[in-house]
Design brief:
transmembrane helix; single chain; mainly alpha
Length: 179
Amino acid sequence: LSNSLSTVDIVDAQSKYGFWGWNLWRQPIGFIVFLISSLAECERLPFDLPEAEEELVAGYQTEYSGIKFGLFYVASYLNLLVSSLFVTVLYLGGWNISIPYIFVSELFEINKTCVVFGTTIGIFITLAKTYLFLFLSITTRWTLPRLRMDQLLNLGWKFLLPISLGNLLLTTSFRLFSL
């Protein structure tokens, strides 16, 4: 969709049409598959099999306590933050704002060509979109029950993989025949 693997080019391709140019609207199936896969990769509920009571004997976290156990939790939350940043850049328009902020610069009497102002706004927009995804993942943790191992494997192999391959085939055919 962006004709590039560069994150800057991906964000620039999403900024052409504002809010409706986001890859969230152009690739809704890919967004849902990426969302579910990132939650599973981060081992967030309902995919947190290492913390499950029935899997506790085989869980890798049973051998650690103290600071090592805390570092596993910090790494888990950093993994969630990085995946949230990837969702923001790939599907939510990255650091571009969908509404014009011309009036904001006039309100604060800032020159529109000021690089610091544009960079600061971009950082705040990226963090706001990232926190939106973090809130979504935490809300998912509160509302959904834990999956068993066989349910997780069936979800991945029998549902997400065929849907993502079909989405890839569909997107490729649209791109091929639209040229």
